[in-house]
């Protein structure tokens, strides 16, 4: 339900009150209309606080909002002679409360950082008025409900961090049409599939870990090759094969898809990821041989492919300083899966088709040698 506040009415009332009683300005905001609106917004917000254990907002009173802890003021972009609230940063304050609709009055803010508090509810619809907002960080709070779709209406948004909350349900396809540089939605309860327009987003970092992503990585990820540096999708129940086009991401330094249900061979094309420093594909169902070209990547520092069903690795891979190949099916290596477990898996080998993220399950391979014929019957005649 939207608040019934009327900003114009409140501002007019303040102006009239000051004109009647000039001494009242000691407890009211100055006649800068930008700061007047900020005063209304911040006071409405403070009214929702039920706990402020560190007294972060102890000095949030009176008209001089630029003196409030965590409030960042700067000259307005359209009028350098008018001071305005340009940002809010009250990270790690452990404040409990909610976000009222009045926060939409802060139309000049460029950053809104409230991570590591105890705010609940969701984002107010009035955030669609924050046209200058570049950075929105509400991570590590107690927000809930569906994805806050109001963020899709913030045209200047570049950094979105909503991780470690209780959001749930679908993630809208329109999110990936935003011109975001960084996107963190990990550690929520989202349940969705990555759409084909995933690759349209010019992000340098995407972290989707610890959600329920019902599907695979679309081949459109290759369209992010000019910007993407880190992809982290660990523990997201993802399936299918890794797309061959993933090798085009030659600026990626961290690629982590561990603790999922990926299958098939590791694409040889990963050798094209020349900037890769950390590759983690552990706890999946990969099979086949680790391509030697992956182990020759020039910047590779950490390679983890434990808990799969890989059947071979080259000497180059064995000699890497920081790698983990345990719990696979690699002959003559220590700490591998049991031969029974490996044989059972390879009775139904999986082959990636090269079309999207699809795969086929092949019939069991024929035995390497035909079985010997049964012994001829022997009759002893007396």
From TrEMBL:
* GO CC annotation terms, alphabetical: membrane
Query: What's the domain of life for this entry?
Result: Eukaryota
What UniProt keywords apply to this chain's record, in alphabetical order? Cell wall, Cell wall biogenesis/degradation, Glycoprotein, Hydroxylation, Leucine-rich repeat, Membrane, Repeat, Secreted, Signal
Which InterPro entries does the record cross-reference, listed alphabetically?
A: Leu-rich_rpt, LRR_dom_sf, LRR_extensin-like_regulator, LRR_N_plant-typ
Q: Does the keyword Nucleotidyltransferase apply?
A: no
**Span of domain Leucine-rich repeat-containing N-terminal plant-type:** 41-73
One Gene Ontology BP term is: cell wall organization
What are the boundaries of the signal sequence? 1-25
Keyword Repressor in record: no
A Pfam family annotated for this chain is: LRR_8
UniProt subcellular location: Membrane; Secreted, Cell wall
Where is it mainly found?
Answer: membrane
Q: What is this protein called?
A: Cell wall hydroxyproline-rich glycoprotein
Q: Origin organism of this chain?
A: Medicago truncatula
What are the top taxonomic ranks of the organism?
Eukaryota, Viridiplantae, Streptophyta, Embryophyta, Tracheophyta
């Amino acid at each position: 339900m939207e608040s019934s506040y009327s900003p114009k009415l409140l501002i007019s009332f303040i102006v009239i009150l000051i004109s009647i009683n000039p001494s009242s300005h000691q407890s009211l905001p100055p006649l800068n209309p930008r700061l007047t609106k900020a005063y209304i917004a911040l006071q409405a917000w403070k009214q929702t606080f039920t706990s402020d254990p560190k007294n972060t907002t102890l000095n949030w009173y009176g008209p001089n909002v630029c003196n409030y802890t965590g409030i960042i003021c700067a000259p307005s972009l359209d009028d350098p002679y008018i001071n305005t609230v340009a940002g809010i940063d009250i990270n790690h304050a452990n404040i409990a409360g909610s976000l009222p609709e009045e926060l939409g009055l802060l139309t000049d803010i460029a950053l809104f950082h409230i991570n590591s508090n105890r705010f609940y509810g969701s984002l107010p619809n009035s955030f669609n008025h924050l046209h200058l907002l570049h950075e929105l960080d509400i991570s590590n709070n107690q927000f809930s409900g569906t994805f806050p779709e109001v963020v899709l209406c913030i045209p200047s948004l570049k950094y979105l961090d909503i991780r470690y909350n209780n959001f749930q349900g679908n993630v809208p396809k329109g999110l990936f049409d935003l011109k975001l540089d960084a996107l963190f939605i990990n550690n929520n309860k989202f349940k969705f599939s990555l759409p084909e327009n995933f690759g349209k987003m010019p992000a340098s970092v995407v972290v989707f870990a610890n959600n329920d992503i019902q599907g695979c990585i679309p081949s459109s990820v290759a369209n992010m090759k000019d910007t993407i540096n880190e992809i982290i999708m660990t523990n997201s129940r993802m399936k299918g094969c890794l797309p061959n086009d993933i090798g085009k991401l030659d600026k990626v330094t961290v690629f982590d898809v561990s603790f999922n249900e990926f299958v098939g061979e590791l694409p040889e094309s990963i050798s094209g990821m020349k900037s890769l420093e950390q590759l983690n594909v552990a706890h999946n169902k990969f099979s086949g041989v680790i391509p030697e070209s992956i182990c020759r990547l020039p910047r590779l520092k950490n390679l983890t492919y434990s808990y799969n069903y890989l059947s071979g690795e080259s000497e180059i891979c064995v000699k890497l300083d920081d790698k983990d190949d345990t719990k696979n099916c690699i002959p003559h290596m220590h700490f591998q899966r049991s031969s029974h477990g490996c044989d059972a898996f390879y009775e139904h080998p999986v082959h990636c088709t090269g079309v999207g993220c699809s795969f086929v399950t092949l019939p069991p391979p024929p035995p390497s040698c035909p079985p010997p014929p049964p012994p001829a019957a022997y009759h002893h005649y007396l």
